[in-house]
């Protein structure tokens, strides 16, 4: 191994990058290096020669040029942006030396900054390269880059100019997120606020602007709101408020935004973008500051959230305009669908207006609720619910609105939240829902219409699932809701026929539907129960049965570890569990032996022998071991000769030895000091003809002598090439001893023993190696040091073996 390794390095057989070879040339060019496949890998791996080359002034300048200049138009489109892409990856590989050089070299920064001076629209791919490079510089060199940008008085103007390009919008947000130290970040916020970035972004949301600019400006403002609020949650003791958020929440800024979209021309893109900003401002948040009121969605703590009053006041002034959008949305062409013609379709404008109403209902503000009642906005969206049968986006928002009205407690301007017992006559919005909008009557009519249509073979209406949930919400509010008293009163005030139909509907149609839905939803539980029932059929005895796959730790007491080589022991020192006894007895009991219990020998490979001595037996003192089963050792006639099979189910032996080491097996393993020829055994011999290397044969014989009554000996002979291996096992049931011997005979000049061993159990082994010329070295026991090698025929010791021995 060492010779191969040394040759490997001596002859430089390790793979080396071709870049190193190129860098040895004095005329190597940047493009040649960029053509190498592993240039990025070598750069990130801090290849010293490559980094030094890239840090050259001309190379850095070329890399910056690649990402800001349009590639030639006559190039193949597949490779046109190859070098700009590689240049961007090299500059953003986060190599500290490169970041330092770019951040400190103002000429390179100016060259990079010049990309913003191009006319709109910018190349989106090159813009992404530019934004990526400048973003990592902001992250790694915040002070230098921010100081550089502040000196450029047209920076914010250029950002606003190119805001329609998504990569430039991302760059603006990077300025807010990549600067981690609090004070530098606060300086950036103050600088951007002084540059009136909020006002400029709001001014873009105007019908006169392009749709891409609407979308990106709106998204930028929404992200600024979320980032600012997240930062306020993390740093609640900040000495200064977020100036950008404070500016955006001012009533005059919201009024400017709404004034832009409610222009003479109804532009859907501008309206939707503005509503997205309002929805973000109305998102609930935890801190409560002066000038904010608390809001509480259903199921949440009432004091956990707050929204700015100025935002609500600005929206209230334009509620009538939003209501008008529900009635007269921006013009849209007729939409042909698989279920008919939509003239006009719902449209994104009206869907977002309904989302805005839902957010306003969540604030549960009396003034807003009163305006909605006066405008009948809830009635209009309920009409849309039943008109647009298949628009589930619309159905979801209408369901949310109704659920909020039913679940929101009445808010008193003087006394705050009013309990259910005191609010029976004050919740105008809830009364409006039942009396003016006739919610119960419309549910019953729609349900009857759907049943009639289905009875005629028609299709079930698409809103039926949402209608079922709305009906269940009314029933729940009647029983347990915060307005249960008022809802019960409103149900009683219904006309008699309507009230009777409603009660019948709740107990019959609605109840049956709920039961059917519950059964359908319970299919999963039924399936799991069925699976468990089937799986239990494979259990043999319940939880009290032993898990045969469970790993168990066998512990021995100090007394049992110090027992003499005679194998005597007391029954109370046994540590095996009764479950293990049963399993072992079933596994090794000879009375249950059958042909399937025999060991099959694979003749296609050299034999892999594994010895297992975990066999129950009786001690010489008559005390039973944990693994009771002395009948295993009874001598019975061995089976007739079978090629390729071996059975070791029954052994007896009177062998006794002294001064041996104790093994971890329940059977004490010892090596005899007597010559092998002096042992009288009942043997099983395995022979194979020399011309069949690797084959194994087995023959069972018994001499029937008196002194072998309690002794069994197993001998296995394996031929493998020029090596003859004889394994012998002699077991004495009376003394609880087992002697395992191994002899290798080589027909070459000198025997060599090669073993592959795997620790599993411990026993005493005697191994011999004998050669044809009977050389002294070959007859020595394996494992002895040169000082221990003598003419003694045995080796006493404790060996760990599992596998071929």
Describe it for me?
- The protein is α+β, with helices and mostly antiparallel strands.
Shape: flat
Low-confidence segments, given as residue ranges, are: 1-14, 286-305, 414-425, 559-644, 650-708, 747-805
Distance between the termini: 26 Å
Radius of gyration: 45 Å
Count of alpha and pi helical runs: 35
Using DSSP, what is the number of strands?
17
Give a quick summary of the entry.
The protein has 805 residues and is an alpha+beta fold.
Summary keywords:
805 residues; alpha+beta; 7-stranded mixed β-sheet; two-stranded antiparallel ribbon; 17 strands; disordered N terminus
Write the layout of secondary structure elements.
Layout: H1 2-10, H2 18-23, H3 30-34, H4 39-44, H5 48-54, H6 57-68, H7 77-80, H8 82-91, H9 96-104, H10 106-113, H11 124-140, H12 142-151, H13 155-161, H14 166-177, H15 182-194, H16 197-204, H17 211-234, H18 243-248, H19 251-261, H20 268-281, E1 292-295, E2 305-308, H21 309-316, H22 319-327, E3 335-337, E4 340-342, H23 347-363, H24 366-375, H25 377-387, H26 392-407, E5 411-412, E6 416-417, H27 428-436, H28 439-455, H29 464-479, H30 484-492, H31 496-507, H32 509-521, H33 523-536, H34 558-561, H35 578-588, E7 599-600, E8 645-646, E9 668-669, E10 683-685, E11 699-700, E12 711-720, E13 723-732, E14 737-746, E15 761-763, E16 765-771, E17 799-801
Parallel strand pairs: 9-14, 10-12, 14-16
Antiparallel strand pairs: 1-2, 3-4, 5-6, 7-8, 10-11, 12-13, 13-14, 15-17
Helix pairs in contact: 6-8, 8-11, 11-12, 11-14, 14-17, 16-17, 17-20, 19-20, 19-21, 20-23, 22-23, 23-26, 25-26, 26-29, 27-30, 29-30, 31-32
GO molecular function: protein phosphatase binding; protein phosphatase regulator activity
Protein name: Serine/threonine-protein phosphatase 6 regulatory subunit 3 isoform X7
Biased composition (Polar residues): 649-685, 791-805
């Amino acid at each position: 191994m060492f010779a191969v390794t040394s040759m490997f390095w001596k002859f430089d057989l390790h793979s080396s990058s071709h870049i190193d070879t190129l860098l040895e040339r004095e005329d190597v060019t940047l493009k040649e290096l960029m053509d190498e496949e592993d240039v990025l890998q070598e750069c990130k791996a801090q290849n010293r020669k490559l980094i030094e080359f890239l840090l050259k002034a001309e190379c850095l300048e070329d890399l910056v040029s690649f990402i800001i200049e349009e590639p030639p138009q006559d190039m193949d489109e597949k490779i046109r942006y190859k070098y700009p892409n590689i240049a961007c990856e090299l500059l953003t590989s986060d190599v500290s030396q490169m970041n330092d050089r770019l951040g400190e070299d103002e000429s390179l920064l100016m060259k990079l900054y010049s990309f913003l001076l191009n006319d709109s629209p910018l190349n989106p791919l090159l813009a992404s390269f530019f934004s990526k490079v400048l973003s990592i510089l902001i992250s790694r060199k915040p002070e230098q880059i921010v100081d550089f940008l502040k000196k450029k008085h047209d920076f914010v103007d250029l950002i606003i100019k190119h805001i329609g390009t998504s990569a430039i919008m991302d760059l603006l947000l990077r300025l807010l997120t990549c600067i981690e130290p609090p004070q530098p970040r606060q300086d950036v916020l103050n600088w951007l606020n002084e540059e009136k970035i909020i006002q400029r972004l709001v001014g873009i949301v105007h019908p006169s602007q392009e749709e891409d600019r609407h979308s990106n400006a709106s998204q930028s403002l929404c992200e600024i709101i979320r980032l600012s609020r997240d930062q306020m949650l993390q740093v609640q003791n900040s000495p200064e408020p977020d100036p950008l958020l404070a500016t955006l929440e001012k009533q005059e800024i919201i009024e400017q935004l709404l004034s832009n979209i409610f222009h003479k021309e109804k532009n859907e893109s501008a309206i939707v973008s503005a509503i997205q900003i309002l929805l973000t401002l109305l998102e609930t948040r935890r801190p409560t500051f002066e000038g904010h009121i608390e809001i509480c969605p259903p199921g949440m703590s009432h004091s956990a959230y707050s929204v700015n009053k100025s935002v609500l006041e600005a929206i209230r002034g334009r509620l009538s305009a939003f209501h008008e959008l529900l009635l007269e949305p921006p013009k849209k062409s007729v939409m042909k669908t698989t279920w008919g013609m939509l003239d006009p379709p719902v449209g994104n404008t009206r869907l977002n207006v309904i989302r805005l109403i839902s957010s306003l209902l969540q604030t549960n503000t009396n003034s807003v609720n009163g305006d909605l009642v006066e405008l009948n906005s809830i009635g209009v969206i309920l009409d849309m619910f039943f008109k647009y049968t298949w628009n589930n986006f619309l159905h979801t928002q209408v369901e949310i609105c109704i659920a909020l009205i039913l679940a929101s407690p009445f808010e008193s301007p003087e006394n705050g939240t009013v309990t259910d017992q005191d609010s029976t006559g004050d919740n105008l919005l809830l009364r409006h829902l039942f009396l003016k909008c006739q919610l119960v009557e419309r549910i019953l009519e729609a349900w009857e219409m759907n049943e009639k249509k289905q009875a005629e073979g028609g299709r079930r209406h698409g809103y039926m699932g949402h209608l079922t949930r709305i009906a269940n919400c009314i029933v729940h509010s009647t029983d347990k809701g915060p307005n249960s008293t008022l809802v019960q009163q409103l149900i009683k005030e219904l006309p008699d026929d309507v009230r009777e139909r409603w009660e019948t509907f709740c107990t019959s149609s609605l109840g049956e539907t709920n039961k059917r839905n519950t059964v359908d939803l319970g299919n999963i539980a039924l399936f799991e129960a069925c699976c468990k029932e089937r799986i239990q059929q494979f259990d043999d005895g319940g939880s009290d049965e032993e898990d045969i796959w469970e790993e168990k730790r066998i512990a021995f007491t100090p007394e049992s570890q110090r027992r003499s080589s005679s194998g005597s022991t007391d029954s109370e020192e046994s540590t095996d569990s009764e479950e293990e006894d049963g399993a072992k007895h079933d596994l090794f009991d000879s009375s249950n032996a059958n042909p399937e219990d025999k060991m099959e020998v694979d003749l296609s490979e050299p034999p892999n022998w594994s010895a297992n001595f975990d066999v129950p037996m009786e001690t010489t003192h008559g005390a039973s071991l944990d693994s009771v089963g002395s009948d295993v050792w009874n001598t019975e006639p061995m089976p007739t000769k079978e090629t390729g099979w071996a059975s070791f189910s029954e052994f007896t032996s009177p062998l006794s030895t002294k001064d041996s080491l104790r093994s971890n097996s329940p059977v004490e393993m010892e090596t005899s000091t007597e010559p092998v020829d002096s042992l009288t055994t009942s043997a099983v011999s395995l022979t194979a003809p020399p011309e069949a290397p690797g084959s194994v044969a087995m023959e069972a014989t018994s001499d029937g002598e008196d002194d072998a009554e309690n002794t069994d000996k197993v001998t296995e002979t394996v031929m493998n090439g020029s090596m003859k291996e004889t394994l012998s096992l002699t077991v004495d049931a009376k003394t609880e001893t087992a002697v395992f011997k191994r002899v290798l005979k080589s027909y070459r000049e000198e025997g060599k023993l090669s073993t592959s061993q795997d620790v599993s159990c411990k026993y005493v082994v005697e191994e011999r190696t004998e050669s044809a010329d009977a050389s002294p070295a070959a007859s020595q026991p394996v494992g002895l040091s040169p000082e221990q090698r003598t003419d003694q025929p045995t080796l006493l010791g404790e060996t760990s073996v599992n596998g071929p021995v």
